[in-house]
């Protein structure tokens, strides 16, 4: 099967034409039609075999995650997903793998109403690169630079289970049965908080997604906003599985673990009832975990009530 056969069989869909995507794959460029009064928001993420995922990951889960991590960036900015581009390097053509990958990819795409507009395929080590495009009303996108002294710090969902799965693969912890499946699903099937991001427009003052660890990612927001923050250890949301682990492992998973793809955001104290109402409407737990302060840096009030500086850095591919 050749390159264009792969595209036609697994990645070309009749419903990819129309609406924002006036013309998808088949020409030298896709043709997109912006919605009047909206701004484009664009993000790109790459997943490389052996670096971002294990060879044992099922292709359907990989298709889901490849798009999910990109949708999470749109969610962090409060954007509505519109179109995406897929560049895929394959070591060989395996039809069963392609079918599973496409199934996971398009199931999530359909759930969020985003269309494949084009891309590229080539031979090479397995590498998946997706570029997503979304829209938000002009001037209403959530950014990292809007946090203000006195704002609450919030995070959605729970943190640390994906990192716990990584430590499971490394042999540092042992889990079985439902616990094993839970943390594996957290790592392989993250859920982008697109609806939450959209609902937070006009409510949150700043936001980003937790992809490389809470402490490091929040540090980016603090730096862009020119502020600091203090978090409460007891308020950091964790699963019962993680809560049963040793304290030092919990610390690593909650503050330095990656692949959570939850949203961390700030909002004025007066907005607490609005944030809680949004969470109830979406059926998604959110947790108030700290407060924005004038003093630069990130601090943590530990289980003994002592305040400590947090020096955990986010994941760095070249560190």
Automatic annotation (TrEMBL):
**What Enzyme Commission number(s) appear in the record?**
2.7.4.16
Q: Which residues bind Mg(2+) 4?
A: 28, 43, 73
Q: Where is the PurM-like N-terminal domain?
A: 26-135
Query: Which residues hold Mg(2+) 1?
Result: 44-45, 120
Would I find Oxidoreductase among this entry's keywords?
Answer: no
One Pfam family matching this protein? AIRS
Q: Which residues belong to any copy of the PurM-like C-terminal domain?
A: 148-301
Which keywords, in A-to-Z order, does the entry hold?
ATP-binding, Kinase, Magnesium, Metal-binding, Nucleotide-binding, Thiamine biosynthesis, Transferase
Q: What pathway is this protein a component of?
A: Cofactor biosynthesis; thiamine diphosphate biosynthesis; thiamine diphosphate from thiamine phosphate: step 1/1
The EC class name is transferase
Annotated Mg(2+) 2 binding lies at 45, 73
- The answer, when asked if Magnesium is one of the entry's keywords, is yes
Taxonomic superkingdom:
Bacteria
Positions binding ATP in this chain are 119-120, 144, 211
Binding locations of Mg(2+) 3: 28, 73, 209
Reactions catalysed, semicolon-separated, are: thiamine phosphate + ATP = thiamine diphosphate + ADP
Q: Which residues form a coiled coil?
A: none
State where Mg(2+) 5 binds. 212
The record's InterPro entries line, in alphabetical order, gives:
PurM-like_C_dom, PurM-like_C_sf, PurM-like_N, PurM-like_N_sf, ThiL-like
What the protein does comes down to: Catalyzes the ATP-dependent phosphorylation of thiamine-monophosphate (TMP) to form thiamine-pyrophosphate (TPP), the active form of vitamin B1.
User: Other notes on this protein?
Assistant: Reaction mechanism of ThiL seems to utilize a direct, inline transfer of the gamma-phosphate of ATP to TMP rather than a phosphorylated enzyme intermediate.
Extract the HAMAP family matched here: TMP_kinase
- PANTHER family referenced in this protein's UniProt entry, alphabetically: THIAMINE-MONOPHOSPHATE KINASE (PTHR30270:SF0)
Family to which the UniProt record says this protein belongs:
Belongs to the thiamine-monophosphate kinase family.
Protein name per UniProt: Thiamine-monophosphate kinase
User: Which organism encodes this protein?
Assistant: Roseateles rivi
> Taxonomic classification, please?
Bacteria, Pseudomonadati, Pseudomonadota, Betaproteobacteria, Burkholderiales
Q: Which gene encodes it?
A: thiL
